[in-house]
Predict the 3D structure of the following.
Amino acid sequence: MTDTPTRDSNGNILADGDSVTLIKDLKVMGSGGVTLKRGTLVRNIRLTGDEAEIEANVDRVRGLVLRTEFVKKA
């Protein structure tokens, strides 16, 4: 892992197990046309080695990698 903390779009520090909210509609590639809508709550995130990405599970999509620029801490 890097020494730089993982931050959301507003600059809040994220940690494992936090909940985040999407700030933009996102099309999920390779999922058969699933689109995650703005305002969707994503619970229990996991940090990755990259400060710009987090891992999460959402309704129909497991093992999803989200860019931190599209989420805000809930």
Notes: The first strand starts at residue 20 and ends at 22. The chain has a mean pLDDT of 93. The two ends are 24 Å apart (CA to CA).
